[in-house]
Inverse folding.
């Protein structure tokens, strides 16, 4: 492929996985990457022409096709961070991640846009390495729990260091664990879901979540038999249940059948961690014949995170 004189590529393709955040007790910290992807191919627009954006797949009929598109806006933010003049882009986006579903669509778009800007900038990878890209993506979105697995893949624990920058630990998920993702036909607003949370919680609930979050790191990586106890939450899911009754009911049904189920992000999607044994158990009827309003898919854990090709 021909390259501009400055050594940056003529075009770039980025692939970003869907993500599920919180995972029960790990509010605004835990996330896992899913084997479902958004893909963006970008190249500089011809001289004298403005931006062009084409979208297929999820959101094709609803997302803006101008400079307000989130991938485009994020690319412009990336150029600014790199000290590069903004350039008009030709973007071709194919979306597999539902919008407003609690599957990390906004994080995927932000990460994709920043990755486009980095790839189209000479020595961009040296000037905006993954840890800096992740910190910037977390700042744009306001929390790191989706951005971290979107960039790094696998299971991540993210937090804010003393310097205010995002820090992440990435851990492999136990090979016996499968992910069952229930997608809802109805979207939800993360901002509205956050507004439902109280400013204070009982001390016993905070203690219970600390214990469950610590246990979940162990269960996901070493001992899947503990997943049901480890995914219990008292900090956010109970307060959002009335706003997403179908989601809350599905989580309750799955957990009642012994399946470690959680609200995916702010909902309305539901994520279940299951073992190979459970895939062949009576509980499997819950994803083989999901309730009205939901579709179910068995997905792998994505271990690659952000992928870039030129």
């Amino acid at each position: 492929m021909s390259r501009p004189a400055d050594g940056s590529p003529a075009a770039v393709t980025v692939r970003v996985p869907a993500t599920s955040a919180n995972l029960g007790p790990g509010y605004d910290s835990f996330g896992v990457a899913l084997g479902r992807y958004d893909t963006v191919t970008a190249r500089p627009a011809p001289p004298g022409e403005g931006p062009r954006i084409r979208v297929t797949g999820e959101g094709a009929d609803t997302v803006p096709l101008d400079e307000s598109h989130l991938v485009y806006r994020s690319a412009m933010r990336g150029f600014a961070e790199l000290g590069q003049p903004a350039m008009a882009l030709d973007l071709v986006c194919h979306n597999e991640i539902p919008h407003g579903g609690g599957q990390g669509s906004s994080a995927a778009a932000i990460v994709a846009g920043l990755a486009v800007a980095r790839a189209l900038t000479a020595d961009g990878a040296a000037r905006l390495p993954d840890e800096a890209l992740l910190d910037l993506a977390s700042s744009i979105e306001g929390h790191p729990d989706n951005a971290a697995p979107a960039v790094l893949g696998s299971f991540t624990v993210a937090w804010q260091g003393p310097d205010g920058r995002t820090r992440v630990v990435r851990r492999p998920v136990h090979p016996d664990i499968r992910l069952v993702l229930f997608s809802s036909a109805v979207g939800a607003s993360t901002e509205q879901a956050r507004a439902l949370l109280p400013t204070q919680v009982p001390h016993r609930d905070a203690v219970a979540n600390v214990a469950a979050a610590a246990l979940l790191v162990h269960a996901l990586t070493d001992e899947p038999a503990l997943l049901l106890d480890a995914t219990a939450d008292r900090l956010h899911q109970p307060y959002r249940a009335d706003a997403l009754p179908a989601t809350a009911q599905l989580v309750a049904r799955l957990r009642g059948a012994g399946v470690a189920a959680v609200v995916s992000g702010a909902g309305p999607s539901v994520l279940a961690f299951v073992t190979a044994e459970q895939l062949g158990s009576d509980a499997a009827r819950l994803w083989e014949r999901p309730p009205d309003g939901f579709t179910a898919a068995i997905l792998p854990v994505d271990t690659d995170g952000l992928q870039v090709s030129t």
The CA atoms of residues 210 and 293 lie 33 Å apart. The chain has two domains: 12-171+302-309, 177-299. The chain has twelve helices and eleven strands. Residues 203-221 form the longest helix (19 residues).
